Amino acid sequence: MSILERLPHANVKRLEFGRGIADNIGSQFGRYIVTTMAIPWGLVSQRIGAPPVHFIDVQDMDLERAQALEAAAPACDTVVAIGGGQSMDMGKYIAWKRGIPLVNIPTIVSTNAYVTQAVGVRNRGKVEYIGEVTPELVIVDYDLIRTAPPELNIAGCGDILSIHTASFDWHLAYAAGREPRGYFPAAVERARALVERLDNAASEIRALSDEGIHTIVECYLEINDICIPLGHYRAEEGPEHFFAYNEEYLTRRTFVHGWIVGLGIQLMSQLQDNNPAAIVAIMDRLGLPHTPRANGLTRVDVIHALETLRDRTLADERWYGIIHERDITPEFIEQVTGGLEYADQEMN
């Protein structure tokens, strides 16, 4: 049985894994638009074969800019997204707006954008998810993905490890009578098993072997298969993401998503009293950067994000959880921020 037969809600119509399989495929797409960035396009442009009719250099996913780029693009048969998260989101946006086929060729597996339905945008500084798209084809070329720095590919583990804190919050909200979507233990058990699966494959993932890359991708597909029938990603998105969104809002910066989510997992698992040492140990075995230093954050940045986290979570109407239940006190902030490595510290 194939992956897509086993996972009918994976949100991919056709999936190909292999080495060198992105070569000479441009002729399959008719008149196509490419959404990408300079580095991934440099890797793919000489091997894809037939060229696109239009090239969109994605700078960010500001909603107004995305609208303008889509409006300026010519008519086409297919949109081909090449690169990482923002390239995928721009491709999904155009495919959604025009109702045309989407092909995703990730050159990095740092986020799950190449298999998710929604388009991630920034609307006046706030992260929002709009639209609904299923790619016709996702091409996972192991050789192409290994051209990205290993620590960026390993960042893809962040949106799987977030199950540790997100699923805790889901149960907490249900127990408090604050979960209108209900609670499904079987879905949570299945999701939590993916964290264990990553840990079991840590050496392959850290080495970025074919098996390691395949594991990351398959875990993302399984998250879709769990969450899409439920109509939400409660098992995977929780306080760790809300912390990350608040840092983005406060600093007006874009982070490596899995790294900043990793920091959120470390901090929010402590707020939850949810076995923080174990999940940090898994991140370290995988080689997932998650320190403030890795994210370019000072202690002041982290403290400010924690101090304002409840207000931002309430303002953004995020899901109920530990941020609502437990006060983030000065004592807690002092405890969790002490001993971390920061961007403005001297290296010993």
Kindly describe this structure.
With 348 residues, the chain is α/β, with parallel strands linked by helices. The chain has two domains: 3-145, Rossmann fold (3-Layer(aba) Sandwich); 150-337, Dehydroquinate synthase-like - alpha domain (Dehydroquinate synthase-like, alpha domain, Up-down Bundle), CATH 1.20.1090. It is built from 18 helices and eight strands. It has helices spanning 3-6, 38-44, 63-72, 85-98, 142-145, 150-154, 158-161, 163-175, 185-200, 202-207, 210-227, 239-251, 257-272, 276-286, 299-307, 309-315, 322-325, 330-337; strands at residues 15-18, 32-36, 54-57, 78-83, 102-106, 119-123, 126-130, 137-141. It has a six-stranded parallel beta sheet, sandwiched between helices. α8 (163-175) packs across α13 (257-272). The mean pLDDT is 95.
What's the short version?
The protein is an alpha/beta fold. It has helices at residues 3-6, 38-44, 63-72, 85-98, 142-145, 150-154, 158-161, 163-175, 185-200, 202-207, 210-227, 239-251, 257-272, 276-286, 299-307, 309-315, 322-325, 330-337; strands at 15-18, 32-36, 54-57, 78-83, 102-106, 119-123, 126-130, 137-141.
Look at the structure and give the CATH class of the largest domain. Answer: Mainly Alpha
Strand content range: 5-15%
Give the C-alpha Rg: 20 Å
Uncertain regions: pLDDT < 50 for 5+ in a row? none
CATH homologous superfamily of the largest domain?
A: Dehydroquinate synthase-like - alpha domain
Under CATH, the topology of the largest domain can be stated as Dehydroquinate synthase-like, alpha domain
Number of domains: 2
Tell me the overall shape: globular
CATH architecture of the largest domain: Up-down Bundle
If you average the pLDDT, what whole number results? 95
Strand pairing plus helix content: what structural class? alpha/beta
Helix content: 40-55%
| Biggest β-sheet strands, sense, barrel | 6 strands, parallel
The SSE order reads HEEHEHEHEEEEHHHHHHHHHHHHHH
How far is the first residue's CA from the last residue's CA?
52 Å
Spatial ordering of strands, largest sheet: 1-8-5-4-2-3
Number of strands: 8
- What is the tally of helical segments? 18
